[in-house]
Amino acid sequence: MYDIRTRQHALALVNQGRSLNSVSKQTGISRAALRAWQARIEPLLRTTNCSMCDSDPRPPQDHAAYSYLLGLYLGDGCLSAGQRGVFALRIACADAWPGLINSCREAMQHIRPESRVWIVQKQGCVMVTSTSKHWPCLFPQHGPGKKHERVIALEPWQKRLVGAHPWELLRGLIHSDGCRVTNWTTRVINGATKRYEYPRYFFTNKSADIRQIYTDTLDTVGVEWKQPNAFNISVARKASVALMDAHIGPKY
């Protein structure tokens, strides 16, 4: 599977008047693939309103909304190919958190205002859904198989956006695969057992790459964390929890 920039470059060479054979030899892309791209992709690139498909590729205009949506996608999102090159972006949101559902819809609409966003009700959750030929351009982490069974790495332009809006990414990750809970413990003081409660944030994901993205971003904002087991990241220190509360807070 070739990314959109590779396809753009190959088609640009063809459009310079070069033969399919010479472009194939230079790029390693088969002539059959080049012919298919000419028929299906070149018209799309000529008429696109996707910022990543322009002659001067650039990230979405709303950087904060994109960083949040990226966090949701890495946690509970997927891209599914449909007919005629259209992809459906679906993000699962629990019915218990209507505020999260609304935030997800708003972010999705901000990123692709040309595409309709709708809700598909499932048992205990909804799938916030939008279709576009360009969702793979915006989420190049898309690929065959489950996320935790393949490499997940941010593109340089995504890293720049996340670097500028780290809390939005963290908020999306917590809203998808995280939670804020209240833990408790007991201590014996002067012969009496006392109960103490304290808040904690958990993030759970099977993908080591996604956990690394999460913890690297925590490091950049000064949040201390620990990994108590294989798939969980915990934030429990008082100052770090207070920092998370100020920027994220519980789901709603």
Largest sheet, strands/sense/barrel: 4 strands, antiparallel
Straight-line distance between termini: 39 Å
Q: In the CATH hierarchy, what is the superfamily of the largest domain?
A: Homing endonucleases
The SSE order reads: HHHHHEEHEEHHHEEHEH
Architecture overview:
It is built from eleven helices and seven strands. It is an alpha+beta fold and 252 residues long. It has three domains: 4-47; 63-150, Homing endonucleases (Endonuclease I-creI); 172-247, Endonuclease I-creI (Roll), CATH 3.10.28. The strands form two sheets. It has a four-stranded antiparallel sheet with strand order 1-2-4-3. It has a three-stranded antiparallel sheet with strand order 5-6-7. Helix 5 (63-76) packs across helix 6 (98-111). The longest helix is centred in the first third of the chain and has 14 residues, at 63-76.
Topology, pairings included?
Elements: H1 4-15, H2 20-27, H3 31-40, H4 42-47, H5 63-76, E1 77-81, E2 87-94, H6 98-111, E3 117-122, E4 125-132, H7 135-138, H8 156-164, H9 166-177, E5 178-189, E6 192-204, H10 208-220, E7 232-235, H11 238-247
Antiparallel strand pairs: 1-2, 2-4, 3-4, 5-6, 6-7
